[in-house]
């Protein structure tokens, strides 16, 4: 299982934000807790688009703790894989 951070740099006030996603929501929440992001900022839970928007300082922390850096194409492929996995019969 892996946590990923993309290279997006969207403005939110004075901050620049990116997406943090993971293979599972549990792993995503664990990384969020480790880097100091509150659970209330979790977006689109239970979907292939489940993520946190994190500022650049939190992104650096996540990478230091093992998050994998991906570009926007990598993020799109990640979401496709999660969507396909959810559609597979159990």
UniProtKB/TrEMBL annotation:
Superkingdom of origin organism: Bacteria
Source organism of the structure: Paraburkholderia silviterrae
The protein's name in its UniProt record: DUF4031 domain-containing protein
Domain DUF4031: 3-81
Record InterPro entries: DUF4031
